[in-house]
Amino acid sequence: MDKHEQYMRRALTLARIAATHGEVPIGAVVVKGDAIVGEGHNWRETWKDPTAHAELIAIQDASKRLGGWRLDGCDLYVTLEPCPMCAGAIMLARIRHVYYGAQDEKGGAIASKVELLQPGTWNHHPEITSGILGEECGMILKDFFRGIRAGQKSRRDV
Description:
About 40% of the residues lie in helices and about 20% in strands. By secondary structure, the chain is of the alpha/beta class. The protein has a five-stranded mixed sheet with strand order 2-1-3-4-5. α1 (about 5-20) runs parallel beside α5.
C-alpha cells in the first residue's frame, strides 16, 4: 500500500467513526512529512454546528499541534471533495496538497460544482489530486444514505 492509500485509509476509518455517531461519514487527516498531525470527521449533527466539517476539524487539530495557523508543507487527505467553506479554509491555512477520494457532484468546490482553488485565483493554491480510493470513499457515503432512505437509524456502523 502506498502512502497516499495509507493516509486515505485513516480518513476512511474516521469517516466510519462519524457514521457510528449518526454523522455523514466524511473523514480527513493532515499530514506533515510522514506524520499525521491533524485528524477530524464530521460532527455537524452532534454539535449542532454547520461548520463542524471533517476538513475544518483536521485543520484546527493540526494548527494546535503545530502551534500556528500556517500549515505550510502540510497535505490534506479527505474522503469527499471539499465544499466551498472547506476550500476557503484550505487556502487560508496554506495547505500544500489536497488529496480527496470521491467527487461531490452537488457541493464540491474543487472540480465538481465550482473550482475555487484554481491557480491564479488567490494568493495561495494547493495542488490537487482526486480519486484516491475514490470508489471506496463514495461507497461509504452511498451506503450511509441508502440506510437512511430505507428507514434505518442514521446512527449505525457502516
